[in-house]
Specification:
The chain has 528 residues and is α+β, with helices and mostly antiparallel strands. Helices cover 41% and strands 13% of the residues. It contains 9 helices and 14 strands. The strands form 4 sheets. Strands 7-8-9-10-11-12-14-13 form an 8-stranded mixed beta sheet. A hairpin with a 6-residue loop joins strand 1 and strand 2. It is elongated.
Length: 528
């Protein structure tokens, strides 16, 4: 045992002899005891021409350790790190490309061997990745179990809803019939109420029209002989028919239907309808008329008569009467100009008269009963629609492809955001992807759920979202979401590799694969 321990470092130091720049896997092609044949078979040369700084083979395989062949490759052993192939042109170019510095053996540059440090960092990174994979896979198994339980619960709820749907449909149909029966007396009562009100409105309108016609007849019948004559009609020039501003005798007679006068019945039945829109009512006095001029003079007869006083008073009275007549005519002309619209003494119907009165007690009772029936029916109908919507959602969710074991199901009702300098990207798995300007504005649809889009051997490693908002003179936007293993669920990046085609990366435990068995630690090899 001790001998093995002593010989172990010697065994580690043994290295297979091969030309510089040749990998261990290719060393058997380079046997110094016989001529060298180019790896592409293009030529066979003496072995001493290998690495002689002259390119003999077309593929450069005779110069693996020099820069003679521009298409050759130099193998960096990089003990303690990962081996690497570099271009032969980089050999002895003054730049350390291999971490062990073997590519700069004759350039005068001293390269520090960093392979051990790089190997240490690489192992730490791999250990961290292995830890993430192990933890992520542990969480993935929990997600799978959670979906199994949730799926069973949803299936049970779906069964209950489907069973209750028939009962609710029967209830809705029953309430529909109750509603329809309650609406029949309601409709009849409301129609009867409407009919009575319309009849009252028509009667009130007819009465107002009759009053207007009677007032107009009374105004036109100046001599109060019970008929309206041509001369009396001519006192209303607004009834002019030829547009000259005056009503001629012929026009008046034509309005009267060829007669010279018209009684109240014919006036109301035939004439009033023809002139009512033009006719302008006079302002009726609201106070008793003032006494006439002779009546005002009676008290003056008691005064002692003078020789010339009666004549002077009569002349003054005539002048006053003429002045008053002129003023009255001017006032009438001003009134006609200032009030072109007809002025009717009867007041028009008030707003309250045009509004239908409240329903009587019996009609209101029918309305209340029908409304209660409608409310119950509408509430039951809403409950049925909500139940049908729940059934559709459950059926869709239960049948959805959430991965081989349902590990992605937890993403179904979630949304995740990533904020950049310009935009806020929002991913709602299995629904849509959107982009919203950070400084405000409406979101842009970058695609709705299409399908799983991973390669054939790893279908669930990517999602495809399609038919987003169209680009200007371009295709509809679309997004591919790559799923990466991680302990948390988070959107890590969003790019636009091609115009209107976006690439998003989502880290999730559901994407973690089962890690390989852990290798035994060095401490387990006590036998060495």
């Amino acid at each position: 045992m001790l001998l093995l321990v002593l010989l172990l470092p010697v065994c580690w130091a043994v290295e297979v002899k091969r030309p510089r720049g040749v990998s261990l896997s290719n060393h058997h092609f380079y046997d110094e005891s016989k001529p060298f044949t180019c790896l592409d078979g293009s030529a066979t040369i003496p072995f001493d021409q290998v690495n002689d700084d002259y390119c003999d083979c077309k593929d450069g395989s005779d110069e693996p350790g020099t820069a003679a062949c521009p298409n050759g490759s130099f193998h960096c052993t990089n003990t303690g790190y990962k081996s690497l192939y570099i271009s032969s042109r980089w050999v002895n170019d003054g730049v350390c490309d291999c971490c062990d510095g073997t590519d700069e053996y004759n350039s005068g540059i001293i390269c520090e061997n960093t392979c051990k440090e790089k190997g240490r960092k690489e192992r730490e990174t791999l250990q961290q990745m292995a830890e993430v994979t192990r933890e992520g896979f542990r969480l993935k198994k929990i997600l799978i179990e959670d979906w199994k339980k949730a799926r069973e619960e949803k299936q049970q709820k779906l069964t209950e809803l489907q069973a209750g749907k028939k009962s609710l449909e029967d209830q809705v149909e029953m309430l529909r019939m109750v509603k329809e029966e309650a609406e029949k007396p309601e409709k009849e009562a409301k129609e009867q109420h409407q009919k009575l009100w319309e009849e009252q409105q028509a009667a009130a309108k007819a009465k107002r029209e009759q009053e207007l016609a009677a007032n107009a007849f009374q105004e036109l019948d100046d001599n109060m002989d019970g008929v309206v004559s041509v001369a009396e009609l001519q006192t209303h020039p607004e009834l002019d028919t030829d547009g000259d501003g005056a009503l001629s005798e012929g026009e008046a007679q034509t309005l009267l239907g060829g007669d010279t006068q018209m009684d109240p019945t014919a006036f109301h039945d035939r004439f009033w309808v023809a002139i009512r829109d033009k006719y302008q009512f006079e302002v009726l006095p609201t106070t008793p008329p003032a006494p006439s001029a002779p009546e005002l003079m009676e008290p003056k007869e008691e005064q002692p008569p003078g020789p010339s006083q009666p004549m002077e008073e009569e002349e003054e009275e005539e002048e006053e009467e003429e002045g008053e007549t002129d003023e009255e005519e001017e006032e009438e002309e001003e009134d006609l100009q200032e009030a072109p619209a007809p002025l009717a003494p009867p007041q028009p119907a008030s707003p309250t008269e045009d509004k239908m009165p409240p329903y009587d007690e019996q009609t209101q009772a029918f309305i209340d009963a029908a409304q209660e029936a409608r409310n119950k029916f509408e509430e039951a109908e809403r409950s049925l629609k909500d139940m049908e919507e729940s059934i559709r959602n459950l059926e869709q969710e239960i049948s959805f492809d959430f991965g081989p074991s349902g590990e992605f199901a937890y993403l179904y009702s979630q949304c995740y955001e990533l904020s950049t300098n310009e935009y806020i990207y929002r991913l709602c798995p299995f629904k849509l992807v959107s982009q919203k300007p950070k400084l405000g504005g409406s979101p842009t649809n970058l695609g709705t759920w299409g399908s799983w889009a991973g390669p054939e051997h790893d279908k669930f490693s990517a999602m495809k979202y399609e038919q987003g908002t169209g680009c200007w003179q371009g295709p509809n936007r679309s997004t591919t979401v790559r799923l990466l293993c991680g302990k948390e669920t988070v959107v890590t990046s969003t790019t636009e590799p091609s115009r209107c085609e976006y690439l998003m990366e989502l880290m999730t435990p559901a994407a973690c694969q089962e890690p390989p068995p852990e290798t035994p630690a060095d401490s387990d090899h006590d036998e060495l």
